[in-house]
Every structure is written in structure tokens, then in C-alpha cells.
Amino acid sequence: MTRESSTQASRNDGPDTDGLDTANPPAAPKSSNGLLFRIIPPGLYAGRSHVLVERSYLVSKRAWMSVISGFFEPLFFLLSLGFGFGQLVTTVEGPGGPMPYAAFVAPALLAASAMNGAVFEATFNLFFKFKYAKVYDAVLATPMGPVDIALGEAAWCLIRGGLYSGGFIVVMLGFGLISSPWALLALPVCLLVALAFAAAGMAAATFMRSWHDFDLVQLAVMPLFLFSTTFYPLSVYPGWLQTVVQCTPLYHAIELMRALTTGYVGWGALGHVVYFVVMAAIGVVVAARRLGKLLLT
Amino acid sequence: MSGPAANVTVVTSTLVHAKGLTKHFGSFEAVRGIDVEVSKGEAFGFLGPNGAGKSSTMRMVACVSPRTGGELRVLGMDPDVDGPKIRARLGVVPQQDNLDTELTVRQNLQVYGRYFGLSRSAVRERAVELMEFAQLTDRADAEVEPLSGGMKRRLTIARSLVNDPDLLLLDEPTTGLDPQARHLLWDRLFRLKQSGVTLIITTHYMDEAEQLCDRLVVMDGGRIAAEGSPSELIRRYSTREVLELRFPPGEQSAAEVRDLAERVEVLPDRVLLYTADGEAALSAAHARGVRPVSSLVRRGTLEDVFLRLTGRTLVD
């Protein structure tokens, strides 16, 4: 069973056996393995994150009601605000001039639901599995590393978020709220937005000490949802507040969605995309590092 | 290290090699420089009271806890460099069951096998075999949460075998189980040993160590206090027999019997005489007019060794 262990041992028993600098082991360069390997120390990634997606799929098969429920939140908002409230506010200033209120709100709800789904799935799930279910302790006893965990969980958030977004886009189409073929790109952009928020949420979850800290998540997500030009255009704010809002992530997501569903897409859209790419990358790296630090002590 | 020539003879069957191994958590020194060699096919035990550093050592060997200092080779590799490669060939049974409570018994085994990179069809077959081994076949599609403590433990052990490990690490495998469940587990572990799996076990149950371990170390305060086979340790640190003389509390007198044994220990209600021949010591005590409430001659056990080495005071 351990044919090669003897040769391995004698080869490794070189002069490096003082082993004093083990808190920060010298990173064996693995430059051929891409960017992730250069950022993450070796041994933290086994390239098998899809197995965690499989696990999540098995779990969700047994809890499909809770999975389906995620679809209804944006739909209820659309019915209540878009069509109810929209009776009073007939038109509003959109990217290409005045537009029906429901068509203005719908893409924003699409973006907001991508955010909500991803953030709550990422924070609650990660925290529960990490702190209470000890799922990750078991995972890390195998060749899998914390990067596998971070990527696998983020990917699952994405798949779930993608299903909700896809469903909502179909609803928008059904109500005639989409006026441009650019909307085809809305789904992939939703996935990017969801990935970024999921990664940020996971990173945040690794800093949480108890369930009480989830009130802080709520405290961060709620104003984003309400004030990121979801229900009215940016022009209602005074200048300085406009700048503040323009720095927050959901604003960029809503800008993207509105542009895509109305067809007024400019080069500025690329800037919004870059915003989320950076956010996702930072989130995944921070989450993986924190998980490694907390679990591999 | 000794010279390279000596190395070759030693490492041919050495699965774990530790020298001066230390682990600090901040200013707390959990492991203070231990030397351990575990050979292939052995059942090796870490004995010690709570907080002796057993679990910290196990976590370092399992490559989920970087060492602070010293040498460590597991399966001939350095955990700091080849952690994933080593873990691929280990089976780990942690102190606390960390089964996946969102999955069924069968799914627990299958998903765990997938973490090791086994194919879907391979894990399906393996799960069936392992449920058989753990006597859980009739609970295959049940939730994990309502299982009894013994069943969960068996499932955790079955799960640790999914990758056919070369080395199985068991951290207090039977703590908290009833006698039936413990004996069933011991039987399973004994079978694994027979089939050639190397076991490393931590425990604070002496009977468990005597049942399972070929060789063991007694740890105390992060250091190794003694090392040997159970019978060697008993010979070295205890005596073949122990005479227990029971007295009403406060009335025991050690002075009259002190020279009847190699070592005499006075407890609140008893006097223990460590001697090669318990019966002879008992007759000698009677001849001197010592009248205990009751007396008992028993064999020396690992428990005697353990208490001698780690003391009778509560550790934590």
C-alpha cells in the first residue's frame, strides 16, 4: 500500500528538515497553474470544487420548496410596485427618455434579486456549515482545500441565482417589459453580479461570530436595495449623494440591467462589468484565505 | 537526524516520523517537542489526560494543522508541502462526528468519496460495501441526525475508509458510547488492523488502549512521558500484581505494610500495594494484624501506569 513512501522519505530528508519556518512555508512555485495558484499558497486548492456543487445539489433536492420560494420575492415586488404603484406614476425618466414605470422597476428588481439571493445564500449557508454543521472540517480532511470550498459554494450560489434570474427575465418578457435584444445578455450579467455578491457575502460570513451578526447583513443589504435607484432615477438625489450611490455595487448592477433591457448600452457598461469582476475576485480570495486561517489552525 | 545510512533502514516501513515536533497556539504550547515513529501495520496509541496534546498531534499528522516546529513526515512526505497528497491516503475519524447532516447515510459516504476524486460509479459501490461493514445497510437512505451515537460513530469510521487509506487516524473513537457500541467498534477496528491498515488512536480509556494498541506513548502536558507496548509499560512503570486493601475512610495505615511492596500508594479509602506477588503480600499483611474491610489482588494494568505517570489530580 505504501510502496513509494520509503523513497519519498529518503529523498525528502534533505537539509531542509530544520522545519522552523513552518508558519509561513516557502511557497513552492507552481506558476504553470494559473493566476489562482500564484495568489493562493500551494495545498489550498485541489481543483475539485465541482464536488461541493454536487453536494449542494443533493441537499437542495431534499429541500426543493425552499429553493422555489426564492423565485417569488422579485415577482411580488414587480406586481406590487411595478403594476400597483405604477398606476400612479405612469412614466419615469429612463436611460433613453421617459418610460413606463413597470419597465423601469423590473430590471432593477432583477439586479436586486440577484444580489439578495446571492448574499443570503452565501452568508447563512457558509456560516451554518462552517460553524455548526462542521461540514468544512470534514471536507478539509480530504485532499480538498479552502479554495475548493470557496469556489464550489460560490458556484452553487450562482447556479441558484441564475435559475431565479432566468425565471424573472421570462416573466419580464411575458409582461412586455423588455424592449431590446440586448436583454439576452441580462442572464450572464446577472450571474456575474450574483458571483460578486456571493463572494463578498462569503468573505463577510467568515468574520461573523454569531447569528446576531446577520442583522448587520440585513443592515447593509436593505439600504442598497432601497436607495440604489431601484425605484426612482439617480437625479432625485443632491449631487454629493449621487456620488455616494454611484460607489455602491447594486447601483452598477441596476445600471447594467436597465441598459440591457432597454437597449441603451454604452461603453460605460464595461466599467460596471469590471466593478463586479474585481469585487468577485477579492471576495473569493478573502473568503478562501479566511477559511484556511480559521479551519487549518 | 542520524546519517543517511541509518535513515534507509528506518524509513522503509515508517508511516509517521516526528522529531522535536511542537505546536503553539499563541503563547500556549500544546505540543512541546515529541518524537514518534509509527510503522506500517502497527496500531499505535496516544494516551493521555484531556489537554495532553493528543488531538493537536493528530491534527498535525492529518495535515490540517501546520506544525510550529520540529520535523514531521507522514507517508514519507512533508505535510507543509504535500498536504493534499498525504490527505488523499489518510482516513480521519475526528473526536467529534462531523457527518453531513443535510445528507443521508448513503450520500454521506458517496459525497465523501467524491472529495477524494473517486468516480460516481466507484463511490456507489464503495458506499454499499462500507454500509455493510458498519452495519448500517438498513439505514442507507435515512437521515443522519436521528441515528444513535454508536451508529454515527460507525458511519464516521466507514466514511474514513472510503479512499482505502494507508493510515487511519482515530481521535477518541469510542468516547461517549455505551459498552455494546464500544465492543462493536473495537471489533471493526480489529478487523481493519487484521487486514493491514495502520491505525493511530488517541484515547483516555486504558481498556481501549490494551485492546487495540501494539505500542503506545503516554502524553502529559504536551510531552511524551513513556513509550512501549502495553505489557512493557506495565512491567516498567507498575508491577505484575496490585493488592488493594480497603479500609473505612481515614482508618487506613500505610506504615505497617510499607515494606511489603515495591511501592505503596495511600488513597482516601484504600491502600494500594504494587508487588509481583499480591497473595504473598496479603498473607504478610494479615500476619501483621492488618485487618482491612476487604482486599483484592488484581493484575497491574495500564491504568496504574497512566496514573503513576500523569498523576491523580484533575487536569482541567
Describe the structure.
The complex is a heterodimer of chains A (297) and B (316). Helices cover 66% and strands 3% of the residues of chain A. Chain A is mainly alpha-helical and 297 residues long. A two-stranded antiparallel ribbon of chain A has the order 1-2. The two termini of chain A are 29 Å apart. Chain B has 316 residues and is an alpha/beta fold. Chain B is elongated and about 75 Å long.
Topology:
The complex is a heterodimer of chains A (297) and B (316).
Chain A: H1 5-12, H2 35-39, H3 50-61, H4 64-69, H5 72-84, E1 91-94, E2 97-100, H6 101-132, H7 135-140, H8 146-174, H9 186-205, H10 214-227, H11 239-247, H12 249-262, H13 268-295
Antiparallel strand pairs in A: 1-2
Helix pairs in contact in A: 3-8, 5-6, 6-8, 6-9, 6-10, 6-12, 8-9, 8-13, 9-12, 9-13, 12-13
Chain B: H1 4-11, E1 14-25, E2 28-39, E3 43-47, H2 54-61, E4 69-74, H3 79-87, E5 90-93, H4 105-115, H5 120-133, H6 149-160, E6 167-171, H7 179-194, E7 198-203, H8 206-212, E8 215-220, E9 223-228, H9 230-237, E10 241-246, E11 263-266, E12 270-275, H10 278-287, E13 294-299, H11 302-310
Parallel strand pairs in B: 3-7, 3-8, 5-6, 6-7
Antiparallel strand pairs in B: 1-2, 1-4, 8-9, 10-12, 10-13, 11-12
Helix pairs in contact in B: 4-5, 4-6, 9-11
Tell the overall outline of chain B. Answer: elongated
- Count helical runs of chain B: 11
Major β-sheet strand ordering of chain A: 1-2
State the share of residues found in helices of chain A, binned by percent: 55-70%
The description of the largest β-sheet of chain A is:
2 strands, antiparallel
Give the strand tally of chain B: 13
